[in-house]
Amino acid sequence: GAGVSQTPSNKVTEKGKYVELRCDPISGHTALYWYRQSLGQGPEFLIYFQGTGAADDSGLPNDRFFAVRPEGSVSTLKIQRTERGDSAVYLCASSLANAGANVLTFGAGSRLTVL
Amino acid sequence: QKEVEQDPGPLSVPEGAIVSLNCTYSNSAFQYFMWYRQYSRKGPELLMYTYSSGNKEDGRFTAQVDKSSKYISLFIRDSQPSDSATYLCAMSKAAGNKLTFGGGTRVLVKP
């Protein structure tokens, strides 16, 4: 596609439920990033994929958070046993490898609200 | 203390004025420096990208990096109401590394 697509755009769930957020990157972009942005804050890094493998998952806050990218394209961020503190906008970004690797294109985000 | 500090604003200027934004950082390992613009309920959009110290100009935008002072700046000339947004600085240690963002500065350009 022309840009990074994220679904759903909005998700309201109850505390303790399981949530999946999907990211469809720009075609041909091998690198894919997940960030989390709380209200009034800058994006915080969660995890980075190069192809199918997680190259850096140091930003995942705990074992309730997990992300996959099984075919090196679409990625899913999974959150188990959601907590109110998980409420935020989850941003996905993609980029080319090597020289273009810092030129990230972001999606519009998935806004998660945990009641 | 955060690795990257940015004044949250808001910064209010009249149309046509120069907007001056800056970030300070603590980690000397940062080599790549970026500025993103983010409109409400949208994802960040890359404005400027620089490597190491120096200046870079693109249209109405000028980015400056002073690694010796661990200080980066963005200047917007002839500001327009459409420049009203949150501006985020970001930096990384190497190409392909994660970006570390500042908290963002909200800018309002009044007609």
Report on this structure.
The complex is a heterodimer of chains A (115) and B (111). In chain A, 0% of the residues lie in helices and 48% in strands. Chain A has 115 residues and is mainly β. In chain A, strands 2, 4, 5, 6, 9, 10 and 11 form a seven-stranded mixed β-sheet that branches. In chain A, strands 1-3-8-7 form a four-stranded antiparallel β-sheet, with no helix packed on it. In chain A, strand 4 (31-37) and strand 5 form a beta hairpin. In chain B, strands 2, 4, 5, 9, 10 and 11 form a six-stranded mixed β-sheet that branches. Chain B is globular, with a radius of gyration of 13 Å. The N and C termini of chain B lie far apart (37 Å). The mean pLDDT of chain B is 94. The interface between A and B is medium-sized, with 32 and 26 residues.
Helix and strand topology:
The complex is a heterodimer of chains A (115) and B (111).
Chain A lengths: L4 E3 L2 E4 L5 E6 L6 E7 L6 E7 L2 E4 L8 E4 L6 E5 L8 E8 L9 E2 L3 E5 L1
Parallel strand pairs in A: 2-11
Antiparallel strand pairs in A: 1-3, 3-8, 4-5, 4-9, 5-6, 7-8, 9-10, 9-11
Chain B lengths: L3 E3 L4 E4 L4 E7 L6 E7 L6 E7 L2 E5 L2 E6 L4 E6 L8 E8 L7 E2 L3 E6 L1
Parallel strand pairs in B: 2-11
Antiparallel strand pairs in B: 1-3, 3-8, 4-5, 4-9, 6-7, 7-8, 9-10, 9-11
Q: What is the percentage of strand-forming residues of chain A?
A: over 45%
**Poorly predicted regions of chain B:** none
Continuous helix count of chain B: 0
Helicity level of chain B, as a percent range? under 10%
Radius of gyration of chain B: 13 Å
Category from helices, strands and their pairing of chain A: mainly beta
Q: Using only CA atoms, what is the Rg of chain A?
A: 13 Å
Distance between the first and last residues' Cα of chain A: 33 Å
The outline of chain A comes out as globular
Order of helices and strands of chain B: EEEEEEEEEEE
| Terminal Cα span of chain B | 37 Å
Structural class of the secondary structure composition of chain B? mainly beta
Helicity range of the residues of chain A?
Answer: under 10%
Q: Based on CA inertia axes, which overall geometry of chain B fits?
A: globular
**Number of separate strands of chain A:** 11
Largest sheet of chain B: 6 strands, mixed
- Counting DSSP E segments of at least 2 residues, the number of strands of chain B comes to 11
- Helix count from the secondary structure assignment of chain A: 0
- Share of residues in strands of chain B: over 45%
